[in-house]
Amino acid sequence: MGRPSVRHKLVDAALDVFEVHGFNGASVQDLTDAAGVPKGSFYNHFDSKEKLALEALQAYIARNGIEVLHDEKLAPLERLRRHFRANWKTVKDRGYRSGCFLGALSSEIADSHETSRAEFGRLFHHWSVAIAGVIRQAQADGSVAAATEAPVLARFVLNAWQGTLIRAKVVRSDQPYEDFVAMVFATLLAPPAAPAVAAPAKKVPRAVRQK
């Protein structure tokens, strides 16, 4: 395997630097220092810090385990559980200080960088669609109630996940994840309620019927 290119080093370093300092708090010097490349080489590969952030975001998305949502060898809800479990493991391994890079970057620069805002919207939509596909299959096989449309459920689940990661940064414990799992899988994506069974009619004694 060849040595990583300057571009590859910058992209890898950007994920860590933006996580620690945020987009606005990180300078080009911070990024090149972390990558171990000359500062002058930055603009040979990226027109702006925003362009680097978006490429780093693509690398992050490729690593966040979305492929398990398409693994037909697993039951639909098991795919969804594994997806969030793997993402949570990353959060926990980093001491609850690292949430979702897509969520963090969106909350920081969506208002000020229109090109990035459009890309954030596209990525959130793609993620929601993947989750909706899993929920739709679970509804079809009867493991999830079909009272609410799958796309609506998927968007809500993803919104709840982003809130879970923000809360985890504050409390630094598994409680937000445990709450997420309990509410999503035991309540929101619960199986259909079993139909009520009517109580058998009481027999009227013959003596009463003859009166």
Count of the separate structural domains: 2
Q: Helical percent range?
A: 55-70%
CATH architecture of the largest domain: Orthogonal Bundle
| Number of helical elements | 10
Report the average pLDDT across residues: 89
C-alpha geometry: elongated
CATH homologous superfamily of the largest domain?
Tetracycline Repressor, domain 2
Order of helices and strands: HHHHHHHHHH
Specify the structural class: mainly alpha
CATH class descriptor name of the largest domain: Mainly Alpha
Instruction: Let me know the number of strands.
Output: 0
Named CATH topology of the largest domain: Tetracycline Repressor, domain 2
Q: Which regions are unreliable across 5 or more consecutive residues at pLDDT < 50? A: none
Q: What is the end-to-end distance?
A: 97 Å
CA radius of gyration: 24 Å
- Percentage of β-strand residues: under 5%
Main sheet: strands, sense, barrel: none
Report on this model:
The chain has 211 residues and is an all-alpha fold. The chain has two domains: 63 residues, Arc Repressor Mutant, subunit A (Orthogonal Bundle); 127 residues, Tetracycline Repressor, domain 2 (Orthogonal Bundle). It is 67% helix and 0% strand. The protein contains ten helices and no strands. α1 packs across α4, α1 packs across α6 and α5 packs across α7. The protein is elongated.
Short description:
This protein is mainly alpha-helical. It has helices spanning 6-25, 28-35, 42-45, 49-63, 76-93, 101-109, 114-140, 150-171, 175-188, 206-209. The mean pLDDT is 89.
